[in-house]
Amino acid sequence: MSRNIRVEESKATPVSERRIELVERKGIGHPDTLCDGIAESVMRALSQEYLDRFGGILHHNTDESQLVAGRSDPQFGGGNVVQPIYILIVGRATKEFEGESIPADSIAVETAREYIRDSLENINTESEVIVDCRMGEGSTDLKDVFEPESGSAPNANDTSFGIGYAPFSPTEQVVHETERAIYNDLRHDLPAVGEDVKVMGKREDDTLDLTVAVATVAQHVDDLDAYISVMDDVEEYVRGVADDHFEGEVNVAVNAADDRDAGSVYLTETGTSAEMGDDGSVGRGNRANGLITPAREMSLEAASGKNPFNHIGKLYNLLASELSNNVYQEVDGVEEASVKLLSQIGSPIDEPQVAAINVQTEDGVSVEEVEYDVESVVDDGLENVTSITQRIINGELGTF
Amino acid sequence: MSRNIRVEESKATPVSERRIELVERKGIGHPDTLCDGIAESVMRALSQEYLDRFGGILHHNTDESQLVAGRSDPQFGGGNVVQPIYILIVGRATKEFEGESIPADSIAVETAREYIRDSLENINTESEVIVDCRMGEGSTDLKDVFEPESGSAPNANDTSFGIGYAPFSPTEQVVHETERAIYNDLRHDLPAVGEDVKVMGKREDDTLDLTVAVATVAQHVDDLDAYISVMDDVEEYVRGVADDHFEGEVNVAVNAADDRDAGSVYLTETGTSAEMGDDGSVGRGNRANGLITPAREMSLEAASGKNPFNHIGKLYNLLASELSNNVYQEVDGVEEASVKLLSQIGSPIDEPQVAAINVQTEDGVSVEEVEYDVESVVDDGLENVTSITQRIINGELGTF
Amino acid sequence: MSRNIRVEESKATPVSERRIELVERKGIGHPDTLCDGIAESVMRALSQEYLDRFGGILHHNTDESQLVAGRSDPQFGGGNVVQPIYILIVGRATKEFEGESIPADSIAVETAREYIRDSLENINTESEVIVDCRMGEGSTDLKDVFEPESGSAPNANDTSFGIGYAPFSPTEQVVHETERAIYNDLRHDLPAVGEDVKVMGKREDDTLDLTVAVATVAQHVDDLDAYISVMDDVEEYVRGVADDHFEGEVNVAVNAADDRDAGSVYLTETGTSAEMGDDGSVGRGNRANGLITPAREMSLEAASGKNPFNHIGKLYNLLASELSNNVYQEVDGVEEASVKLLSQIGSPIDEPQVAAINVQTEDGVSVEEVEYDVESVVDDGLENVTSITQRIINGELGTF
Amino acid sequence: MSRNIRVEESKATPVSERRIELVERKGIGHPDTLCDGIAESVMRALSQEYLDRFGGILHHNTDESQLVAGRSDPQFGGGNVVQPIYILIVGRATKEFEGESIPADSIAVETAREYIRDSLENINTESEVIVDCRMGEGSTDLKDVFEPESGSAPNANDTSFGIGYAPFSPTEQVVHETERAIYNDLRHDLPAVGEDVKVMGKREDDTLDLTVAVATVAQHVDDLDAYISVMDDVEEYVRGVADDHFEGEVNVAVNAADDRDAGSVYLTETGTSAEMGDDGSVGRGNRANGLITPAREMSLEAASGKNPFNHIGKLYNLLASELSNNVYQEVDGVEEASVKLLSQIGSPIDEPQVAAINVQTEDGVSVEEVEYDVESVVDDGLENVTSITQRIINGELGTF
Question: What is the pLDDT of residues A189-221, one digit of tens each?
Fold first, then answer.
């Protein structure tokens, strides 16, 4: 067996030292992220169903949900979703195996509806969303059933690759943390704040411009004054988050497209722009590490919804992120690490064609000094690659 | 104003005296009846919304729901709905009026989902049904808003007619009552009995053959023996109902298409055949009086889902049924009455082109003797025609 | 073998002698009739495909097409269909048999598109109509394959009945012939005349009111004057047709709902109201004899799209119509005949439970005198019942 | 006015000199590319319609088409598409402007159908594809109508960016040219070759592994021998293309996933894997320059279907590609150029926040020496930015 691990010194200018850096994160309630979340939750539910029934995972990929925006008439204090959001679940699943039928479509619909309800506090899934399903039928040969407990790695389904890096630059930290904090924390204190939050960070030298778009929830915003007050609260909160992670100057703009004089502000009934005009689909938003980072090497792969046991585009992206983190955190002297994994179609996924690690070391530390430790970390990670499957199913590893 | 009421003696042989009589009723859980029920409940919800917002009813017709059967794998003790039932709500509604938007599509979806949940005790609307909506946009002129409180009758939307009669023949009573009793009563004692019940009565002279199809609910039927026991209970129950209304010989067959030896019995997960292979649509089932009676004059009009204020095909069918009942019950000497109402497009609905009443009188009573009373009853009914609208919206007048 | 044929004298007042008679026909381009036509043509195409592949017909029923109206902006001289008509094909078909897959869905979509193109001269099927398909999968046991050449009658799929009568009353003739002549003849001389023609005939004593609604084709109507000229031509033409078949007074109203002063006339782009606001579905229009005749006994069965070999609701309605015609035309002394056929589920379709024939004889001819001949005609018809299947597939027997 | 142009020296190792390089191109018939093509052609048709009607372009974005794979049963010599491919057009368009209705949905459906027919020589669009449409309604203010002839640049709709570079590395050239040559050339000589071609190039040092997947067309492949012969022809052809552009060793593998012994080869009826199991959506395939190049900075933006006049994610990606090409071709001494454009929401699109150009110069040429020329080229390009709109509509600038 060969892991084909290669450790090299990184020569590129670190992202944080370049003059311009652009980073974006689409929040949980953004239409694209909603699709990612639905795709991933349906995949998890199907995997679990297969495991419960057959002790192994059968062929499926549910990475093609399409969201068609609704139409709404938001009003201060509460208006209406006039036409429901329409979500079409696409993909394929094994619907029959060993003479037993598996209710894949029913599971998909139920899971998607539950995911939406859990993700959007203010949506009424009975009236404001339609979940439709046109999932094709895949088939699984007996020999292709993946049994996590067997411990043996399945073969790669494709020649593809995954990319990861660690740590986040300060700009990346701010952008990521801003959305996370608003969703997990601020939203609970300020019910007017919805789940569709989009954060764009542009750093130019030492100045960070943070543009934050926050869908507000109409029933919790009585009038324009209340709206302005919410905007002020959000701005202050975001500034606090940014100051924790970024040392330079920070400019924060919240809902910059508003035209308050014209009464045109970012008001929604449900907390997401999907209710009015913003369509979404899987793989158009955040990469597996939660960010959109054009200046970094990125995979175009839509990880969400892909099967969790042999889909390289998914597994290697998640694994590469994790390995970079492990290298960065566990190997002394490493300041930055990026990992690129390239599969060989038909070969076991724990034996990549190449596992290339680029490291940036602290001043005074040579790559040769850390090489052995880095290899060990990566080797361990590859050895335990099948554990990723279970952690994906458990929801411990995110794809957006 | 002219009611154009004409009372005549009925010359046809009464249905109950003909050699052969065929009567059918599709129960609440039958796919066609489900569509009728959805269409009617959506219409009621929209009418109420219009009334609440504008004090009047705006243009709408929601009489075209289509149900596409799902796919299931029923098993004794409980199996699965593999592919959800798909329901497409079609029709049109006024979605904007006087600058205000009306969430007609959201209301339609919510109402349909609620109706299904209320009608089918064992269905899981989160996973086993998809409610989609492609409802067109109608427009309403200010002058066409129907204000029930104004008391003035709107003009007929069409040249059409409605038909009714009273009383039910004994065969009709049995067929109607059998389904009603199973749904309202037996079902609660026997949880294995679903809502999709179809009753066909064929009377030949004095012998009534009752063919009853009852969808059983898999989770409440442990095995074939339990199933057979349920069948026996249903048969006995139905026989009891029949004996209350029919004096001749009664033969009862329950789920006659079962092949018990082959293990092929009428088992469902949800209580309706819509889960597996039986599509449905509006207007293909019961007429407004709850029965299918080919030997009687019948309107083909799909009453369910039609607007409740000027749709002649709906109003005149309901009104004709009610007027026949009133004549039969209130006028001494009348043994049978049938009413046919013909509208004049553009004329007030309380001024039909013709209101023709055929009566069968008791021996010794002439039509002339009852004519005045019959006319009075019909005249009163026409005078109060607009009250029908409100009673339809309240759900007091059924269309299936 | 027993045909259970019973010949009786008809006692009811002939329809043409009653004071009021209502008859309606929805033309080829009416949304409901379009659905009937699609359903029937898809059924024929599938039957033929099964025959070509397997020498027998497999299980299918395609009787649930739903048409959702589009939205148009008709303008004199030509406007636009803004939103296409949406047609959903529903039903079930055998998609796999003896290891071979049958492209049932593809055939259904292609056939429906072709049918629409053939039926509506002015529609652009590339842009103005969407044909979607959610047809379920049925299964066919080897023993259930119907082989027309075997000559043996299949068993009835249900306890159901069919009804027919002959001849048409004069009013019925006028209504039927009016639409047929406009579609087959006038339309070719007057390109402004579309295919969506609805004819309602109300006879009161000797006076026939014919209300005709004709969708005009915008690109062939330059302005209001041209429209009025077309209306005049249609009226004159209809009057001519009526005069050929009806002896009393005839009043003709064409497009009576127009408000010419307000410029509101019945103009369409495609020749059908389906382009704007009028939905349609199978079985809501004409009965199998091409008419809606509430005063006659009618089956509610949607014959269109039902399988052509053992679906009683279809076969017996077609057969009953044909047998009535045969009796009327072949048996001297018969002035009117109606036939009612009642099947016995599981028994061969050529052995009905009852074949009841009611005849009206000429003055001076008794029922007894014609009884033997009538029985012979009906017996022959039942003997050749399987020939109906082939004629349905060939399109020789219509269902609407 | 300020263009904010900055020219810098590129410090990163050129892609072609790195050890590993991965490049991919999905051909015209790949499901994702089909969606891109549909999205873009619908956008072009709508833009043209708006121009023809109003002399300006109205608000629209049609960048969300979803393709749901069909099901097929390919057989040597010709089999069947059992279930049609389903394509849902999503997005929004202005459907009414200045009181005139625009048939946006009809145009979208027609254009998509035409695009599919033009792109896939062997598909039967009557039976093998369903094009559905759920496009929302956008609105356009009079002031937002973009009139290309006015010459004035519209304002950016977002703070976003575009990236481009030139020239292609040899690996990129090979990958791009391989698909282009197969589609434009080989396919016409070898009718067995379909349009769904996927090319993956992995260069490791001087060795290029080309993995090519080619959907073959069943009706033009009589048997396995014929298939193998086609594979040999394709391999030889691809090798020829590669040798024209790449100097090192080239390994070519065609349809490597085939299992010829098991009779499992890449056979299709239509020339695309969309007929069986492979879904697709917009923005998941090639970037605007026709390649997927994870080692290059890439935008995640789905350019296809976005409006052509103020959508930064589209315009700046196309413009950045073009500017890099211009710089590379027009400025002596430049060996490589990459351009990054960052917009300022609300500012004219010809005044970016930053236009950053990185150049690699020939040995002996300093960046300072070329700076002025580079700036001129970029300045000219920005000055003529609005010409891009017209060229997009004309189809001169591709997005995939």
Answer: 999 999 999 999 999 899 999 999 999 999 999
Q: Report the range of poorest mean pLDDT among A292-306, B305-319, D16-30.
A: A292-306
CA distance to partner chain D, nearest, from residue A45 (Å): 21
CA atoms within 13 A on the CB side of D351: 11
Q: Do the Cβ atoms of B294 and C354 come within 8 Å?
A: no
Identify the pLDDT of residue D301: 85
Q: What angle do CA C143, C148, C152 make, to 5 degrees?
A: 70
Output the domain CATH number for residue A60.
3.30.300.10
Dihedral angle over CA of D27, D29, D31, D36, nearest 10: 70
| Concatenated DSSP letters of C326-361 | HHHHHSTTEEEEEEEEE--TTSBTTS-SEEEEEEEE
pTM over 0.90: yes
User: How high is the mean pLDDT of chain D?
Assistant: 94
Domain final position from A216, A251, A281: A281
Distance CA C80, CA D42 (A): 17
Nearest by Cα to C198 from C121, C284, C130, C263: C284
Residue A298: predicted pLDDT: 82
What percent of chain A has pLDDT above 70? 100
Q: Which of the 8 DSSP states describes residue D146?
A: B
End-to-end CA distance of chain C: 32
Task: Look at residues D281, D316, D351 and tell me which one is the last residue of a structural domain.
Answer: D281
If asked whether residues B43 and B103 sit together in one domain, one would say yes
Q: State whether D94 and D74 are in the same domain.
A: yes
Q: Which residues pair with D250 in a beta bridge?
A: D208
Quick: pLDDT tens for B222-267.
Answer: 999 999 999 999 999 999 999 999 999 999 999 988 999 998 999 9
Cβ–Cβ of D292/A300 closer than 8 Å? yes
Q: Contact A106/B83, CB-based, under 8 Å? A: yes
Q: Same domain, yes or no, for A51 and A111?
A: yes
Domain-embedded: residue D399: no
Distance separating alpha carbons of residues B55 and B65, to the nearest angstrom: 27
Is B179 found in the same domain as B135? no
Query: Is C269 within a domain?
Result: yes
Element containing residue B45 per DSSP (H, E): helix B31-54
C123 falls within a domain: yes
| Distance, C-alpha C357 to centroid of its chain | 23
Q: How far apart are CA B57 and CA B138, in angstroms?
A: 13
Nearest to B214 by CA among B233, B199, B203, B236: B199
Backbone angles phi, psi at A24, to 5 degrees: -140, 150
Residues D224 and D131 placed together within one structural domain of the fold: no
| Closest Cβ–Cβ partner in D13, D91, D342 for A279 | D91
* Mean pLDDT, residues B8-27 taken together: 88
> What's the mean pLDDT in B297-306?
89
Q: Which residues of A touch B (CB under 8 A)?
A: 73, 80-84, 86, 95, 101-107, 109-110, 113-114, 124, 126-128, 130-133
Q: How far does the CA of residue A12 sit from the closest CA of chain D (Å)?
A: 6
Q: Does the distance separating the beta carbons of D73 and C103 come in below 8 Å?
A: yes
Residue of B nearest to A102 (CA): B82
On whether both B137 and B184 belong to a single domain, the answer is no
With an 8 Å Cβ cutoff, are C300 and B292 in contact? yes
CATH number for the domain spanning B208: value is 3.30.300.340
**Are residues C307 and C163 part of one domain?**
yes
CATH number of the domain to which D359 belongs: 3.30.300.280
Asked if residue B314 and residue B178 are part of one domain, the reply reads no
Closest listed residue to residue D307, CA positions, set D80, D106, D51: D51
Domain ranges, residue B231: 170-281
Question: Cβ separation of D64 and A279 shorter than 8 Å?
Answer: yes
| Number of independent structural domains in chain C | 3
**Is A151 part of any domain?**
no
